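Task 17 of the worksheet. Students: predict the tertiary structure of the chain below and write it out as structure tokens. Keep your answer in the requested format; marks are given for formatting as well as content.
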Amino acid sequence: MSINSFGRIFRFMTWGESHGPALGVVVDGCPSGLLLRAEDVQHWLDRRRPGQSRHTTQRREPDRVKILSGLFEDERTDGPRTTGTSLSLMIENVDQRSKDYSDIRDAFRPGHADFAYHLKYGVRDYRGGGRSSARETAARVAAGGVARIALSALAPSVQIRGALIQIGKDRIDPEAWDWAETEQNDFWCPDAAAAARWVDLMDATRKSGDSLGAVIEVRMSGVPAGLGAPVYGKLDQDLAAAMMSINAVKGVEIGDGFAAAALSGAENADEIRMGADGPEFLSNHAGGVLGGISTGQELVVRFAVKPTSSILTPRRTIDVTGRERELLTKGRHDPCVGIRAVPVGEAMAACVLLDHLLLHRGQLGENQGRIG
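Model answer:
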């Protein structure tokens, strides 16, 4: 299996499987001299960790990260500093229950990657899906933790925040958006009323043996203008690719996204005026990117996560011999995998922003155009 890496200058490669002894990530291109402790990365992994509420998988993984390389510390430093060489981070799996998957050893779960993996490779890890499992995203969050440390040093104004804005058909009220509320409920939801509704919705879904999809929104503020390249290195292109690479994601949009198709040109144009502190946009339909280059406005990306494919509702399928059968998937699964996708989306956004910041500095240094 090839292409396990992402990025250009800040680049990471994940490894490991859902039910293997461990998984992890090798991060290349991290600037040297950054103070980086395991607990700095652990903070972000704890946000993604399974088993924190009844609305997510009850697999109990502590997700404790170990940094195996790329740091140096002695009596002359105030802590472990990055050396500029590759960082290797490992997360051990400690709560696998592979026996839960014995019934699907030779059968393909509808909606899952089993069928496609078998056709491509002729062999697959049926224990939780192997590399196709959302368990792989823990490694991405670790890489994102490293990216956030670098961003805080190189572009301290950058702030990356994600929220769950829809479960199933139930969407939040945008007028009720409160970032503080995302830390007060189990859904990363910015609307307290929606979060209260979702408790009952998820309880009913879990008890029925079914699952639901979700939509996540990630906003990036304080991003410098000028990141991205106009043709094959667009900032929004790479953000879309990053989100689309997350397990179970089936759609991505930037700014107004598909809703922009229903607007007129006059409605969609983000008008500009000259303010006291420089150019000011009167709207942000473009999501902070024009021509593939950041404008200095807030970057906005949304992605849709399909319903969890591993469900207790019987579905028709076939096995490796072509025999038709009914299948339900035992084990511990997220009734809505989108809930824990919020910190994953944030992590991928951090990796893309750092990569583009390093690309920009490598090409142009600190030079940027000025207006006024």
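Marker's comment: The first strand starts at residue 5 and ends at 6. Residues 55 and 202 are 6 Å apart (CA to CA).
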